[in-house]
Amino acid sequence: MQSLNRDVYLLGRMETEIVEPVIKRILKLYRKSEDLDINLYINSSGGNGYNADAVIAIMHMLKCKVNTICLGHALSGACEILASGTGNRQAYEFATIMFHQTLWEADGDITNLEIQAKQGIRFREAQIDLLHRATKKDKSILKKDIERDHYLSAKEALEYGIIDSIIHFNK
């Protein structure tokens, strides 16, 4: 009998060596069955924003739904992945969720600094657009909220529109 385990785990900082196997597993599960949901469990402090974008792109190119579940924390780009799930977006009741504008490093001569600054602004605008699509929040609110670390409990994330439901412990 074939296992129906459709679970993928994004654990730790989103560096390439963490994200690459996540993307490969999602695609492998999708090739096995294009119709069954995939569950993406998240416990991450964020990391490389481009890696977060890659995971989001993969989720949105699939025909099946990708349910996102925050286990403990989904910070920075991990929050964007959580919010961008194409199925049910959930968090455990004790979870911590945070978004902020991407940290951007630049160096070089003045011309390259100008180019890098424009890219940083473009990336921030893309973040705001992504969160707008996921939460349906007005972009002016998101622009204000993204300026600094914006921490949310699971209940606050539900009210904000980042998740659809809260998972409670059985008592």
Features:
alpha/beta; single chain; 7-stranded mixed sheet; 2-enoyl-CoA Hydratase, Chain A, domain 1; 171 residues
Q: Count of DSSP helices? A: 6
Oligomerization state of this entry? single chain
For the terminal residues, how far apart are their CA atoms?
34 Å
CATH architectural category of the domain at 7-101 and 146-167: Alpha-Beta Complex
CATH topology of the domain at 7-101 and 146-167: 2-enoyl-CoA Hydratase, Chain A, domain 1
General shape: globular
Integer average pLDDT = 93
User: What would CATH call the class of the domain at 7-101 and 146-167?
Assistant: Alpha Beta
Q: Sketch the topology as an H/E string, one letter per element.
A: EHEHEHEEHHEHE
- DSSP strand content: 15-25%
Instruction: Give the helix proportion (percent range).
Output: 40-55%
Unreliable sequence segments: none
Tell me the structural class.
Answer: alpha/beta
How would you characterize the largest beta sheet?
7 strands, mixed
Count of beta strands? 7
CATH superfamily of the domain at 7-101 and 146-167: 2-enoyl-CoA Hydratase, Chain A, domain 1
Radius of gyration equals 17 Å
